User: Fold these one by one.
Assistant:
Number 1:
Amino acid sequence: MKQKTGIRIGGGFILLLVLLIGLLIWNINAGSVQLSVGEIFRILFGGGADDTANRVIWSIRLPRIISALILGGSLSVSGFLLQTFFHNPIAGPFVLGISSGAKLTVSLCMIFLLSRGMVSSSGTLIAAAFVGAMISMGFVLLISQKVKRMSLLVVCGVMIGYICSALTDFIVTFADDSNIVNLHNWSMGSFSGISWENVATMAIFCGGALILSFFLSKPISAYQLGEVYAQNMGVNIRLFRTVLILLSSILSACVTAFAGPVSFVGIAVPHLMKTLFGTAKPIVLIPACFLGGGVFCLFCDLIARTAFAPTEVSISSVTAVFGAPIVIYMMIRRRTGGAQ
Amino acid sequence: MTRTGKEDEYYIKTQNLSVGYDGKALIEEVNFSVKRGEVLTLIGPNGSGKSTILKTIVGQLKRIAGVVLLEGGDIRERTRNEIAKKMAILMTERLQPELMTCRDMVSTGRYPYTGHLGLLSEEDKKIVEDALRQVDGLEIAERPFTAISDGQRQRILLARALSQQPEIIILDEPTSFLDIRYKLELLSILKKMVREKNLAVIMSLHELDLAERVSDLVVCVNGDRIDKVGPPEEIFTSDYIARLYHMEPGRYDPCFDTLEFVPR
């Protein structure tokens, strides 16, 4: 029996890696400039091909692919952390309004800087997104103290999200600047237009937060038994809760800063990974959620940019189409599956 | 820890402890002590504050006044990990862990002993196996924790507490909602562990008949105060129990530990 779980975990990771590599190649390949696999390898490892193909791959497709991987992974780990925190499998940065809070402050920041003729740097965007994420999170935490029912908390989170989105739309509509076109694109959610400088910044912030989360595996596993037992096992509850909130906010803030709000990844992927690996142990699930989130977003981004090419669909629409049914399925199964 | 070796020394002692919620004391002057190898039981009517006292001892509630001494020193001066290695709990919270087998649940007791990533060593696994054996839980070890009966669940949680290799176990109404057979089973396992491992036990019980049999010391909690502390034979008298539970005298029969139903 013990061995079986080991095989299942190993198999799960192999499956994810195979999917990841397949999607990486497919993603590099797909697009308006058609390239053969041989050409791609030549471009990636030691140049040689013509200039356009080289540019398409190095400055458009690769940064986009890497950011989809990092941001998708961060989003689902952020979802997993929030689910642990609230002991609620349908909590996530999007449904709790945290992504939308970040979206609001990032829009404000961009418009403010644009009106002064400045372009916002990656660091500024992350800082703005983090402030917004923390404000939304503050409201959610306040509500969670009053509301014990988990479904009600999610409803409140969705409402916070709507308020923030409405404010963002309002601001975007009335801000008169030609650059707003970009802003509009971003506020719908998209992995396009990400530069190498952005990738480097997100790698630092997300990478740091992801590694820290992984090293919190032990207290997270204790916290899964509830606060009382976690405290008895020697976890400093107050410190742990604060760190958990900060990490999940940083992760979802990074995603929003670069790709706008991306829906349902934070709930659907952790659930899929639990089903695939047959465990909820954080030491397995945190790496699994990262890989799974990356795979999921690479797949969705592929669809977003190729399904109706040359028109691009927003990434959030695609993730919603695939993610929302999973969430609905989960909620139904929980309702019928046992006394909660 | 330098234990002086004197067997009669207390393990945990409360001194003028006040317990309650939000800084307001519900019960004041809680004074009792328990030695290793002894079972101390809190009894009293519903809502009399038994759980509040236990929650304060385990640190879930802030104490309002007084101290809890662990081996002679204030428990607050110990590190979290030190306490975790000495004190295990079994509280009334219903655990609904996702995708956890009973063995996984018992393994969580090893938490204070594992490294930064919480991986179990061979020795940890052996201790978990032993703990499962002691509660006759090996057969259900690989079953999901959420899929077993209430009685089995309490046994697994007891195994979890044992795998923590504690010196004291604190249990909040461990037998509530169990069939009489499981009540007896759980308490006899506990009693055996107390003898074999020289454990101290503090627990609350609803069932007076069980409390009388299992306890070395009984603490009677009555609303705003500790009414009486003493060995079972002093406590379980007809008059006293009737008074504690606000019943008319004569309705509790100490000879048979039965509550009598008096027709009106």
Note: Chain B touches chain A through 30 residues (CB under 8 Å).
Number 2:
Amino acid sequence: MSNVSDVIIIGAGIIGNATAYFLTKKGLKVTVLEKSEYIGNGGSSRNGGGVRQSGRHPAELPLVMYGVKNYWPTLSEELGTDIEYYQEGNLRLGKTPEHIKTLEGLTNSAVSGGLDVRMIDYSEAKEICPYLSEEVIGASWCPTDGHANPLLATLAYYRAARRNGARFISGAEVTEIRKIAGRARRVITTEDSFEADTIILTAGIESNRILETVGLHVPMNPALLECLVTEDSPPLFYQMLGTAMADFYGHQSKHGSFVFGGTTGFEPYTSLGKSPPATSSSAPGTCRGIMKYFPVLKDLKIVRSWAGWMDDCMDHIPVIDAPEEVPGLVIGCGFSGHGFGISPTAAAILSQLAVGENTVLDISKFKYDRFKVRT
Amino acid sequence: MSANDRSRDIGAFSAAPDDDMIVCRCEEVTKGEIRRAIYDGMFNVREVRRFLRCGMGLCQGQTCAKLVKAIIARELGISQGELEDAAGRAPARPIEMRIFASERGRDE
């Protein structure tokens, strides 16, 4: 098979797979190179599945609002796979006046970005979700937020792009992007080489290793994220849940199991090995957080826990850009642990950048050259 | 690790008489569903279980892991040795949230 295509995508996570899907729909010949033996083996399979608008960085809000309006509700139908999207709202819970202050800050910021989100008191929250602990004193409520299954969504984009003719090669570790006549054109792997008019880099935390071969670097660090899943339970509630302190977040899945993630404070202190080092302390800590807000879940059995790396950018929002420094290259990385919800929109924009179309939304806040030294 | 081209020709899916057989009992996943997923591009144990949830239930694949692996190897025409086992994860067996939560030795 020829190793020349219109576009090469490096990294078969949900961003890369969805970009491949959009490009094959435009009729382009696409090759996707994935270092891992598995499709979607990075952050795409290692996150809580939130499709949240509330609590977003203001710069990302238009992307996720566009996605919630235009992509998520029809994605299962479009991809021919049930990706288990629920749009039943997001409750972000607080137990102390300090928590409420945090929630009010997030809410005001989102409202000024045009989002329908508001503060509610305990009794209203209890009406939405009757299983709340009585210690909750208030919450922010965004009725159009939701969640989906990130494992399925990632593989559903892969499946659909592959059906459309995209060539995916796993176990293909890219070592270098090489310029020809001043333009990024050739992609070298440990075993082979490929060529395309445009190269899109969506390799998460591993992007810098490849970017450095063309003299670029995105200021980001790996951060460890851990998740857990319970046995299945009869349907209780389908809101996306979070807290002011981010002790945990999660939701009940279509299957009946609850999927939760949590933060420990140790996230930035990890090292990149072959696979993310799940710790013995993170999932139990998340459980303690959950039980303080949802004591009803205390007897549910935990069946599995797992970890992944976030590509945490200096300002915690991604780079989505075709940098002037390297013509022919498009970058989509640094999603900082909240890439899943914006993945369809981000991929649509990356596919537009790849073919030189106007992007559907303004991406000036996601430019590669936005990072400046302090003095 | 070697390159695995997901566009290589593995022929067309054809139904088999035992496709209704349940392979993963915890999650009730049939052989036919697993075979179909392979033709949809899920070329290893990890992708099949993420796509179908087989081996992700209460027993975490202790019963079906070998069967799933054998089905994938047969459909792809490769030896089982070329397929990595799915990763086992903590906890080693299902454990109540309130007990898992007390890893620090306190009953919270």
Note: Residues 4-46+151-219+315-370 of chain A form a domain with the FAD/NAD(P)-binding domain fold (CATH 3.50.50.60).
